[in-house]
Amino acid sequence: MRAIGNLIWFVFGGVFMGLAWWFVGLIAFVSIVGIPWGRACFVIGQFTFFPFGRDAVSRRDLTGQTDIGTGVLGTLGNVVWLLVAGWWLAIGHVLSAAACCLTIIGIPFGIQHLKLAGISLAPIGKTVVQR
Questions:
Q1: E strand or H helix that includes residue 57
Q2: Which residue in 35, 84, 86, 113 has the most C-beta neighbors within 10 A?
Q3: Does position 101 have pLDDT exceeding 90, yes or no?
């Protein structure tokens, strides 16, 4: 079921939001300062292409250890991210979720968009794992 869900997701719109994440990542890589955000964009962008069967979790929860992305600098990075680009991607996911939820068949896809909208607000310190 995951493969079918991911295929339908990718063909009917997931590719566009994934490319949006990658585009923001490329913009972040233009400046040396934006490289941590760009890396997070590419990880979450790949997750956006095929979200069924995977979850984004905090690296602190996964490993039990604090690193640079899950500590104070990660929190500061997420605040900067939210102000600069996070809310734009979140709006895109929320609007996509609303469009998907217009039909009963689209509700699971809308739920995935809402999950991705939450991640887009604070992607630093997250990693993607299989369920």
A1: strand 54-58
A2: 113
A3: yes
